Write the structure tokens for this entry.
Amino acid sequence: MDEYILAIESSCDETAASVVKNGREVLSNVISSQIALHTLYGGVVPEIASRKHVEKINPVIEMALKEAEVTWDDLSAIGVTYGPGLVGALLVGVAEAKAIAYARKLPLIGVHHIEGHIAANYIEHPDLEPPFLCEVISGGHTHLVIVRDYGEFEILGRTRDDAAGEAFDKVARAIGLGYPGGPKIDKAAKEGNPEALSFPRTHITQAGRNTLTYARGSQETGPYDFSFSGLKSAVLNYLNKCQMTGESWDQADVAASFQAAVVDTLVGNAMRAAEDRGADRLALAGGVASNSALRSAMQQACSRRGIKLYVPSPIYCTDNAAMIGVAAWHEWKKGNVSGWDLNAVPNLKLGER
Ligand code: KG4
Ligand code: ZN
């Protein structure tokens, strides 16, 4: 019998709902974005995000059911992101999912947001099955992991400071492009010269020390860790220097040169891990995976090494509920059903339940 999961995602600034059939087929993927609202403030305002989720969540779910042409009676389970993310935003989705699951007597499945991003790769690539290497690059996370099995990860590296998307957002703000930074830098960089300015590519060595910038953060060290704060500081220093000396700077060149440094770091780390671990398949996940320069540089690097690259379509890279539905299905099949005490966990770590 066919199984239909209604999935809900509200961890940040998108209110999203989706119906996924049998774990891979997306029947609907409704996303109500709050971007225009938060643009006014130059970034996501958590309380405004929560209030908007409360307002939008029921219409978004209704639309997801309608587009999928399924009724409440067709649903087999409810999946929901319960962390990591903004606590007030997560609570809206979790409370909604619980209410529906309780009223309809359906299994409730709490999903890790990053596990959802990784699962986005299964939607359009039926041949992709674990194990594979995956680089997760979002606004809050930068992880290099081996996906051992559905929902099971070996973490090879993580960021010591800023996430890749966070660096995009901060630099975009500094050069006057505003929020959301990633897509704006991506667009501006197309008009700029990536070699105009030489910004640092931070490489963290095995010993846990990086060669170019000071890395703060946890005591844990990983040979494939990332650090983007030195790069962000280098851009800010360059802008300050120009301001102090009255020198002019070119927005597109700064965007392109900054982006090139991020891309080199992301490609370099992934290729090093792929070679060391003998990986022949690499998947990208998260909002930054929709970056056009990264997608083409990673494809080139993979082709040279005979690695097959998997990248979700941009709509499945940024936050959406379809990816949560896919991850929920796999968790459900493994028997991981949540209790009625499911709560929002804003700093949920990857691999934790
Ligand atoms: O995965 P996501 O939608 O949300 C989180 O889980 O954080 O990622 C959002 C991040 C933001 O930092 C945004 O600037 C970045 O992804 N992003 C991009 C692009 N589109 C979104 N970064 C670079 N290039 C893009 N085209
Ligand atoms: Zn996300």
Q: What stands out?
A: DSSP finds eleven helices and ten strands in the chain. The first helix runs from residue 35 to 39. Residues 207-219 have pLDDT under 50 and may be disordered.
